[in-house]
Design brief:
By secondary structure, the protein is mainly beta. The chain has one domain: SH3 type barrels, CATH 2.30.30. It is built from 1 helix and 6 strands, in the order αββββββ.
Length: 112
């Protein structure tokens, strides 16, 4: 794993990826790389999702391609679960839980 917050992720070290569990993210969490986004809404309108993180998943992109990701954040807003994800090659993104297939761990699609 890279020293920079959004650097590449080694699939073998997915459990050690910084993540946020059990609370809503703040700006400091985003800056530290524990979260991808910070929802600037009334905290009574959102809640942390009940998921075990970090988690391996396959994200389906808008163009139909499938991409392995590490889910590091999960928050519920208006009955939608929003995820913060890390890409193996580096970088981060945001998607809905409906756009991912959760896995028990890395599989052949993670390239190891």
């Amino acid at each position: 794993m890279s020293a920079e917050p959004w650097g590449p992720v080694d699939p073998a070290a997915w459990r050690s990826v910084p993540h946020l569990q059990g609370r809503l993210a703040g700006q400091a969490d985003v800056e530290a790389g524990r979260a991808v986004f910070h929802l600037d809404v009334d905290p009574r309108r959102c809640a942390p999702a009940e998921l075990s993180l970090p988690a391996c998943a396959i994200q389906t992109l808008d163009d139909g391609r499938r991409r392995p990701v590490i889910v590091i954040q999960a928050e519920v807003l208006r009955d939608e679960t929003i995820l913060g994800v890390r890409y193996l090659e580096g970088g981060s993104g945001v998607c809905y839980a409906a756009e991912v297939e959760f896995l028990p761990g890395p599989d052949h699609r993670f390239g190891h």
